[in-house]
Design goal:
Length: 404
């Protein structure tokens, strides 16, 4: 089988499988041992699949997606029917990413990393603002963010909103648009100059203009050995002066296991924001280990037996202990805490941005970085409008694509 790291894989899955299935052997190929500096990981994985012909793959979502698009993976449909494999309780947003347009499933993941909207109860109460709710729209989130007064000159100014990509407003807007079902690039054409994209960029840039958004470009990067300092760098919400933050489930674990370190942080959590057009969609789920079977595997039945075991209901109950850093893909497994439900609300996941960017030549990617560094500052300085900037960016990117 092919995975990123043999030791990590065996600790999570391999050792327990072998202990309960003594008639099986696991010969593991580690991608990391074959990857040299500067090499394209997609090419290395594709080469290993061809050369080694493994029976089972355990790969990150983007690597899985490439192989699925190439038609190199087997559908699970027949095995699921034959074994009556129970998908009840499986997170819809996880399954959605591994299906094709006909609904056939080509992978399963035991766990996922989810994102949600965290909020600081004290800041909301101090400013007499109602707490956030599940399924808020992005428009609502940005409107609420601007209600928090950012006192100039304060050592710890109140910040309305933090986003993981807040060091780059352009990328932040792209990620939010992606979660709302918008497309940056389709059928050899860039599609930035639209009313929908204009609304996203308007929200983001107005938030930065009002200093309501956390500005990650000014983050402290000096070396430190302090656990608390490192935690706050990874999760600025822990600083106590951010009203709302998009962050993943690792922050949830940090908050639960470090209560003594942050005793004054009274927090809550609601589902990932949505758009009015797609109220069941987000890009709030990341999959680090998608299990799949190559189309020409020599032992596909054995590979399916492994997947059946580690993605089954019994193993799911052990996952909070085996892999505490991620969330069980089965909602009934380890979800005694009601707040965990916030990570499971959305039924569809739109992570097309990564796939679309992969289609673009490197010079076009470089041009995208160039135009964003030109026009986003112009918007923030009121030298141009969002509409004009998007139109210019689209034209320059289209020209770069045509002349590559």
């Amino acid at each position: 089988m092919l995975t990123w790291n043999e030791q990590t894989f065996n600790q999570k899955y391999g050792n327990l499988f072998l202990a309960t299935h003594p008639n099986y052997d696991l010969n593991v190929i580690s991608v990391m041992e074959h990857l040299k500096p500067g090499e394209d990981i997609n090419q290395v994985v594709e080469s290993l699949v061809t050369k080694e012909n493994p029976d089972l793959l355990s790969l990150q979502m983007d690597l899985f997606a490439v192989l699925k698009e190439q038609g190199r993976l087997a559908s699970f449909t027949d095995w699921i029917k034959k074994d009556k494999f129970d998908l009840t309780g499986y997170t819809p947003g996880v399954l959605d990413q591994m299906k094709d347009e006909q609904g056939h499933l080509y992978g399963l993941a035991p766990t996922f990393v989810g994102s949600a909207l965290y909020y600081n109860k004290k800041l909301f109460e101090t400013n007499n603002i109602p707490f956030p709710t599940d399924l808020m729209t992005w428009d609502d989130v940005f409107a609420v963010a601007q209600r928090f007064p950012n006192k100039a000159g304060s050592d710890t100014p109140q910040i309305g909103f933090y986003h993981p990509n807040s060091s780059n407003p352009f990328l932040m807007a792209l990620r939010i648009g992606d979660s709302s079902g918008l497309s940056l690039y389709n059928a050899q054409k860039f599609t930035l100059s639209t009313k929908a994209w204009e609304g996203v960029f308007q929200n983001v840039t107005e938030c930065f203009k009002a200093q309501a958004c956390f500005d990650g470009s000014h983050a402290d990067t000096s070396q430190t050995t302090s656990i608390e300092v490192m935690q706050k760098r990874n999760h600025p919400f822990l600083g106590g002066n951010i009203a709302m933050a998009i962050d993943d489930s690792s922050l949830y674990r940090t908050l639960l296991t470090n209560k003594q370190r942050y005793p004054d942080l009274d927090w809550g959590i609601v589902s990932f924001p949505i758009s009015n057009e797609h109220p069941d969609m987000g890009n709030n789920i990341a999959l680090n280990e998608v299990l799949s079977i190559p189309l020409h595997a020599k032992e596909p039945e054995g590979a399916w037996e492994f997947i059946n075991y580690v993605c089954g209901a019994d193993y799911a109950r052990m996952l909070p202990r085996v892999n505490p850093d991620e969330l069980p893909a089965r909602q009934s497994a380890g979800n005694e805490d009601d707040m965990l439900g916030s990570f499971y609300k959305l039924e569809r996941v739109n992570n097309q941005m990564t796939n679309k960017l992969r289609e673009l030549p490197r010079p076009v990617i470089a041009k995208m970085d160039e135009v964003s560094q030109t026009y986003i500052p112009d918007i923030l300085a009121d030298k141009t409008t969002v509409s004009e900037a998007l139109q210019m960016m689209e034209q320059e990117l289209q020209l770069a694509l045509a002349t590559r």
